[in-house]
Amino acid sequence: MFFHPLDILIFAAFGVAMWAQVRVKGNFDKYTKVPASSGITGAEAAKRLLASSGINDVRVEAVKGALTDHYDPVNKVVRLSEPVYYGSSIASISVASHEIGHAIQHKEAYGALVLRHKMFPVVNLTSGVAPFLLIAGLLLGSLNMLGLGIVFFSAAVAFQLVTLPVEFNASSRAKNLMLSEGFIRNDEERGVNKVLNAAALTYVAAAVISLLQLLKFIALFASANRN
């Protein structure tokens, strides 16, 4: 009933997102088996980068699961999945260094990260309400509900777009730091790029999907408004 020409692009973007997830796992699994020449673990890499960056108030902890790595800016903790924390592979130190990139962004008040943190409380609320407003607006033919849903959903899309430079910058920092600290040799950089670029692609695909969905709802709103 609500099929729109943009749905074709949305389905294509979903396909890219699924492919990106497969690439992330595939590259991580592949380079988990490739030991780094430095022989250090992800935990050691993270702690050394924190120390060399003058960051003394961020802890490094191991967490259960795979690819559950993240930086918690509220509690100032870098949480690394066990394969990353204890592993000494190209994948392990790449992921660990990426998360330290976020900690460094936090210390330096990197603009996109600061904006993302400020947006989070609002987006946390609006993203949960937006789907109900959009669906209700379409089913009930209510332009007011649909319009409010679009506004709320726009906040979530903006959040995802702001996330992109944050992630790309953290990966760029990670690669530079790994080379300068001697964690990897130049000939190992290809593996690092494969691991980090695949992860970045998942953020790009998610942002594209959300943006296309937003454009679809805006088009539906405009069409209903004309009628």
UniProtKB/TrEMBL annotation:
<dbReference type="InterPro" id="IPR007395">
    <property type="entry name" value="Zn_peptidase_2"/>
</dbReference>
<keyword id="KW-1133">Transmembrane helix</keyword>
<feature type="transmembrane region" description="Helical">
    <location>
        <begin position="146"/>
        <end position="168"/>
    </location>
</feature>
<dbReference type="Pfam" id="PF04298">
    <property type="entry name" value="Zn_peptidase_2"/>
</dbReference>
<protein>
    <submittedName>
        <fullName>Peptidase</fullName>
    </submittedName>
</protein>
<feature type="transmembrane region" description="Helical">
    <location>
        <begin position="122"/>
        <end position="140"/>
    </location>
</feature>
<feature type="transmembrane region" description="Helical">
    <location>
        <begin position="195"/>
        <end position="222"/>
    </location>
</feature>
<keyword id="KW-0812">Transmembrane</keyword>
<keyword id="KW-0472">Membrane</keyword>
